[in-house]
Records
---
Amino acid sequence: MPEPLTPVTFPTDFLWGCATSAYQIEGAVREGGRTPSIWDTFSHTPGRTAGGDHGDIAVDHYHRYREDVALMADLGLNAYRFSVSWSRVQPTGRGPAVQVGLDFYRRLVDDLLEHNIQPAVTLYHWDLPQELEDAGGWPERETALRFAEYAQLVGDALGDRVEHWITLNEPWCSAFLGYGSGVHAPGRTDPAASLRAAHHLNLGHGLAVSALRSVMPTRNQIAVSLNSSVVRPLSQDPADLAAVRRIDDLANGVFHGPMLHGAYPASLLADTASVTDWSFVRDGDLAAAKAPLNALGLNYYTPALVSAAPGKVAGPRADGHGASAHSPWPGADDVLFHQTPGERTEMGWTIDPSGLHELIMRYSREAPGLRLYITENGAAYDDKPDAEGRVHDPERIAYLRAHLAEVERAIADGADVRGYYLWSLMDNFEWAYGYGKRFGAVYVDYATLERTPKSSAHWYGRAARTGELPPVDAA
């Protein structure tokens, strides 16, 4: 990408942050009363994760959080998005909070504020308490009710100091990778259950918004983070355009429909009628799911390219979401996914910054009046230290600069984008890929857990301090 003739600049109050999630970094899975989540169970099941990797220790953030906060402060970041471990705070998914669990997050928040870093709390990043999964998990209505209770406990404990709140991270992954294709915890492969899970995630989100508002100051802002897809057709053939609409409903409308508009797309209900009759949607559910938000989080990595298939697609799909013989796209077995052309990251995902601008502008129209945050964006590369122990990652710098330039372009085009959270602060447990994929701006030696900022971290820190995007070679 050519360098712009003038520097790219951002608003002075723009949030420059990094993001993480509890199971990927915390470790300490048996300390302080914490009980297993579905990811503890899944990762300890043979064959579920690369190399049998798990998050028992992860990168030991639970014991090293002060070091990690100091790293962010040294880089010049002013925001940090982290998730709370539900089973650390409410081990059975029911009943009163365990104060020692909440105390960890109280200490983390206090340390962030002391370093002038704004905390952003994500309540759920895929780590459902195992006891709730044993009772049926997200396909059951009860889980949505329990989530609202948990949200109120955390909101009551941290709401006086944390102003930025996110209910769910990427509910699409929870519903369709967890209960459809089975490549994420809990590893179930039931298309009807995945749609029930999606609905109860919508319901749980809305109930959690109301629960948070009941215990927090009105100044606090509440959002949800969606990994909405930019879906493009292989051709302009009407059949391919119909395939785009079908996947758009399943990737996007299934969540933003209820959350933003109080209704599912009629075309989604028709397309999935052979899978479920949607009788689990009760009176009042969609009104509850549409609880008013202050902001919307968008997670973006790569676009999707689809076409119609002549018949049913059997076996794994090239949709970038892991290999499984079971589809995460219920009612869309006649849609083909294609690899988009261009450079790719270690995840095999095509690098296409224009998709981020397209996504932002879509949701500027879809959710007028809501502040937008890029709550995840980043890339995995095969990072290695050099002979002096430095980690130079020019590919990631180029990736970040190109995507942040698209954020700035969207702001210039009128989008109300208030912040950007790089995924991720540091290398960590990358779900079913184990420790083999490095997304971090900070390199972690998994043998010693030593942290080393990569050149991309220094580049990003400079952008955060100046509000301008340095040249790619400026790290």
---
Amino acid sequence: MNDTSAAEYRIAHLQEHLASGDYAEMGVRIELRGNTVLIAGTVSSAACRDEILRMAEDELAGLPLREDLVVVSATAPDHPEELA
């Protein structure tokens, strides 16, 4: 098994781990870009983002990681939107 195949196998394992847990509904993508793993998407809280990154660091130890996880808020705005 070459390095790319091994990385793809580990990424698939992490994706299965996320899909079987509390994060299945999240819009998180995990992709191999060159030698770097990109974790991108939207999550519901900073705690959720931190847990996903912790799991990724555990599962993908030794691989360079980049993350682009955006925390979206489901709370109502505290002021009206100004339209011009």
---
Amino acid sequence: MNPFEMVVAIVAIAAIASVVRAKYGIVRRHKGEEFIQRGPDPEAERLRAEVKALKDRVAVLERLATDGSTALEREFDKLRDR
């Protein structure tokens, strides 16, 4: 193995190690390595709930658009009664 190949191998090993460390949440500090626990993100949960609500609304609109005119009139009457 010539010196160039050895340098490339060392750089590849270091890059793979850093990717694995990042995947598992291990962070290097000045006094060693720490494992950072990733908890649920409240912003992500809020966005998931919002996307679910929007998907439900789109499903209702698709159903209204594809139903016959009498079904559409019944849906409008239901909404007026609320």
